[in-house]
Each structure stands twice: as structure tokens, then as C-alpha cells.
Amino acid sequence: MPMLDETKERLSSLPALTTSGIMLAASFVLSHFDISLPIDPVWATLAISGTPLLLETAERLAYSQGINKISSPLLITMAMFASVAIGDLFAAGEIAFIMAVGEMLEAKATERARRGLTKLITLSNIQARIITPGREGIIPAESISSGDILRILPGEIIPADGHIISGSTSVNESTITGEALPIDKSLGDEVFGGTLNCFGAIDIQASCSGQDSSLQRLMRLVSEATEHQTPAARLADRAASWLVPAALLIAIFTAFITRDMHRAVTVLVVFCPCGLALATPTAIMAAIGQAANHGVLIKSGEALEKMHRVSLVAMDKTGTLTYGHLEVSDLLPIDDSYDEAKLLALAASAEAQSEHPLGQAIVSCALQNSLLLNEARDFRMSLGQGVSASVDGKTVLCGSEAFLTELGISLNVFTRQTAQDLRCQGKVALLTAVDSKCVGILGLADTLRPNAAQTVSHLRELGTDVALLTGDSRHTAEYFARQAGIENVQAQLLPHDKARHIAGLQNKGHEVCMIGDGINDAPALKIAHVGIAMGSIGSDLAIESADIAFMHDDITKLPYLKKLSKATLKTIAVSIGLSLLINIVAVVLSVLGWLTPAIGALVHNAGAIFAILLAAHLYDSSFTAEQTSESEEELSPEPEAAAS
Question: Could you tell me the sign of the dihedral formed by the alpha carbons of 626, 629, 630, 633, in that order?
Fold first, then answer.
């Protein structure tokens, strides 16, 4: 029913709601000064704010099953008609307007951007260069069949899963595994569709069709996980399942005993759960607003509610627990004629013409330290191994142990052990040699966020366990996990492995929150009870798949979210309790005849007023944790507004 949906949307818009409020106010002013018009302006309020309620009630009665037919809109519609029937138009218009305000606030709190799988669609819309006897052609990636021979040039996306049959290269697999370092690939190695060929031209033999590639499976996982997440039923509607029958019975009983229809109608009016309906959306709006002020984008009230129940936080490593970019971490001269600065300048001079991320990281480090680089001649790069160049007339090599050994350079036990120690710390060890002699080792690594260990500790204090899920090697994963104080480590996981592990944890009774930054994290973010994306560095798909995004990549916001969620649920509970108490008292007074329909409408709105006041208090509250992050200090210059 597109036309009905469009009508409800237009009548629920801010301009329509503003017009409705103006007409209601005009009716009140005119009646106060005993001014009558041919048509009371409140009819406009009923037409604008009452029509969406009437349409929703009719839709529920027609299409919902069982008890779901009984809803809050049904009771409100009955109260409006009853008020009109006894001639109290203002009470009917007031009810319609208050509920329209509640509906708008709830819509603002829960609406989510659903732009689709934009990033994956872009990746999947690629071409494949197929090699057939005597010619080379271009076909869509989805047309690839198992066994096809494909050629991938430097800088191109690998269109399908397969293994290399010719050439060698380095492949950026961050879209699939999340690994920050390009992986060296040579003859016989496996490659995945959707990953980036960084350097050399390679020929691969497809091991599956284009529709069955890792990229396509990733897309299907996200789509399926999206279908599994259904919105929670509104609390007001659940309460209405017993409020509606109770209101009808009490109204009928009152009319039968007192023979006074005004009392019966007043019962229906005061029973309208305006405060109950506003309790949840106003508190959620306040919490979402406060979180936004602290760099946290919460996309739905459901995610905020679930965050309080989270018992385990699963973290990705690259870009989440760590910064996600390479830096020179160790400078280890092993020749007395070289100190750290001289070793770094020498390696950077040799790597100056390299396009490999490792070489670029070395050059960047040297420039940051204001080191002078000498011109390199006869530069050569051996894919997956290292570089050689002539610097100041000396032959300089910078690369792996295997690269130096292959070129006849002898490495002693100390040098080999030092390189092995670096690798055990999750680092890349690059050896530098001058004129056939190894003079030093450079260690490069991703960098742990300085507040990672503190965040893990605070989560545990809040009763939440932490697990590390990563596509990195086990050595790397365990090294960073030890630094952060994480005991539960799962390494070398592909995207579907992460999603399967999350599902397994949930099947064991855990309420799981997944936090990640890459496309490879999207399925796990979707399938988790709460998905959190690192917003400023995260992929578009990760942000779209997640329920919450950290716009400043500050993981200290995890404890803050737990506390905010708890406070929000408490605020909602208090608001609902006050609303129900006010309704009960108002019903008693209505039965006794102490309230008229118009006064009853004003009295029962006290619940809505309390809900808004409590939400305002929630917005201004502070949820101070033991730590305060730098980004938070920037966002909250006022000490009383700071939250960690």
C-alpha cells in the first residue's frame, strides 16, 4: 500500500506536525475568549495527527495476527472517537497531537541509513582478463568458471579465488583477512577474489566460479545476517495488549454503574499511554544525542538497549586494537660502524624508489627524523624478497633472510635469532647489508593503541569478557593480545570464520558485541547482537553493517557505552513506572467523576512531561570512567559534560 504509506509519511512530517500544533493552540485560544468559527481549528489537528493513527490501527487490525491486533494506536483511536462522540473535540485533538510528537521522536531515534552494500557492490563490479589459446579477452567477474586462466596486472583487483600458475607478487588481502601487511605470493600460492594485486603481473587458475568467490560469499553473508536482525517490539505496544482490554472493561463498568458517559470517556482518555509511548523514544534520543557529542554514532535504540546486556566484546586487531598502519618499531645495528640513525638513513636511501608499503614506511620514518637520504642508483626490487641499490658506491641490500642468503651473504646465529624474536613479536624483520655484510635489522609493526589494555581492564570490571578475532597469523595475534591483556585469541580467520565464531559464542548464551573496521568484519558486525565500526578509518561497508560507529576510533568509548546503556534503560523504567502510576491515579479519579475528559487529557500528559524531563537529565548526565581519552577531552571541554 504505497499510497497509504506515503500519506502517513507526509502527515507525520515536521511541517505537518507544526501545523497540527498551531491549529490545536488556535482552538484553545479561541475557546478561551469565547470566539467561535464555522469550523473549529482542532478538526485540522485531528485530520493531520489523527489520520496516521487511524491508518495504523486499521492496518494492525487487518494484517496483524492474534494479540498483535491490540495495540497502542487502537486505544488512542478509541479515545479520540469517544471524545468526539461526546463533543469534547479539544481533548481528542490534544491526544492525537501528543501521540504524533511521540511517533516523530521515535522515528528520529530509530531510523537507520540503508544505502545497501555499496562498497562490496563496487568491488564486485569488476572485469576479468581471461587467457584462452591464442588470445586474451575481458569478461565480467561473475562469468568466470572453475579452471579458467586469468591474468591480473599490477594495481588490479583479483576477480576470483584461485592459485598462481605464473609470476609472483604481493597481494593486499585486507578486504578479506584484515591483515595490514601485503602478503607475498609466488607460484602455487592461493589468492582470493576481491583482493588487490600490488605489484607483479600474475596468471592464476580459478578454483571456483565467480559466483562462489570469497567476495561473493562475503556479500551473501552480510545480506543473510541483515535478514536475521529484526526490530524489538515496542514496549508501548506490548503494554497495550493488556491496557486496551482493561480500559474497555473499566469504561464499560463505569458507564454501567454511574450511568455517566462522560466518566466512561474520561477513563478512555486518561488510559491513553502517552507517557508510556514517550518514555522510550525520548530517553533514547537523549542518549543518542549525548553519544553523538562524544564522537559515537548510535544508529538505533535497539543497539543501545542491547549494549547493556553485552557479556563479551569481540575485537578485530588491525585498525581496532591497533592503529592499522606500519611503523618502524626497531632499529638494531649489528655492526659497530653503524648507529640507529645511520642504519635507518642507509635503508631508507635504498628503499626510496620502492613502492612496497614496507619500503615506504622506512622512508617515512627517516624523513620524520629529518635524516638526509643519499641518491640510490641501479635500484632493483625482487618481488616478495627485498631491494638492492648502489648508495655512495656501496651495494646495499634490504630484505628478508632468504633474500640475503640467496645472494651469498652469511648470517650468524645472533642475527638469525634476533630476526626470529622480532617475528615472534608480530613484526616484520628486514635485514640490511652493505657490500656483502649484514649491518643491521629493522623491525616494522602495526602499533597497539595506547589505551587498549586499560579499555580491556575496564570492560572486565563491568563484567564483560574480551576476545580477539583476527585474520593475522597466530604469532602476531598472540603478541598483541598479551599486550592488551586479552586471553581469548582466535587467529587466521577469514570473514566467514569470524561470523561463524560469533554465532557459536551467541549459541553458548553470550550477548556478543563485535567491533571492527574493515570489509572483512562486515558479516561478523551484522551477525553480532551489537556491531561497532571504527568510523574514521573503517570501510563504508563496515560502518553500514554496524549498529554503532566510533567516529574518532576511540575504543575507550566501549565502557562509556555500557554505562550509557544502563542509565538509559533505568531512565526508561522510571519513566514507564511514573506514567503507569499517573494513569492508575487518573483512572480512579475519572471513575469517581473528579475529572472531565479535557482535564483528564491534561492530567495524563504529566507522564509525558516526566518522560521528557528525565530524558533531559539523562542527556546532561556524566558517565565518568577511570580513564579519559584525548579525543574525548577535545569533544568535551566542559568537565561536567565529559564522559568516557
Answer: negative
Evaluate whether 56 touches 234 at the Cβ level (below 8 Å). Answer: no
Q: What is the mean pLDDT of the chain?
A: 80
Domain borders along the chain are 2-112+230-288+563-635, 126-227, 298-323+450-553, 327-445
Residue 18: the pLDDT is 93
How far is the C-alpha of 592 from the C-alpha of 595, rounded, in Å?
8
- What is the distance between the alpha carbons of residues 21 and 148, in angstroms, rounded to a whole number? 67
- Output the pLDDT for position 259: 85
pLDDT at 232: 33
Where do the H-state alpha helices sit in 447-532? Answer: 452-461, 474-484, 495-507, 522-527
Answer CATH for 298-323+450-553 from 3.30.43.10, 3.40.50.1000, 3.40.50.300, 4.10.320.10: 3.40.50.1000
Question: Which residue in 88, 237, 316, 472 is the catalytic one?
Answer: 316
**Residue 316: active-site member:** yes
Residues in a beta bridge with 203: 151, 166
What pLDDT does 140 receive?
83
d(CA 355, CA 198): 9
Which string of DSSP letters, residue by residue, matches 240-266?
HHHHHHHHHHHHHHHHHHH--HHHHHH
CA angle 235, 237, 239 (to 5 degrees): 70
C-alpha 530/C-alpha 548 separation (Å) is 8
Residues 528-553 as b or e (16 or more Cβ within 10 Å = b): bbbbbbbbebbbbbbbbbbbbbbbbb
Q: Same CATH topology for 126-227 and 327-445? A: no
Residues of the chain short of pLDDT 70, as ranges, are 1-2, 65-72, 75, 102, 105-125, 174-181, 210-241, 244, 272-275, 277, 384, 518-519, 535-544, 598, 601-602, 604-605, 624-644
pLDDT of residue 631: 37
Q: Which three cell numbers stand for residue 167?
A: 609470476
- The class that CATH gives domain 126-227 is mainly beta
Task: State the CATH architecture for 327-445.
Answer: 3-Layer(aba) Sandwich (3.40)
Beta strands in 361-511 (DSSP E): 376-382, 386-391, 394-399, 428-434, 437-445, 465-469, 488-490
- Longest CA–CA span in the chain (Å) reads 111
Between strands 488-490 and 465-469, the pairing is: parallel
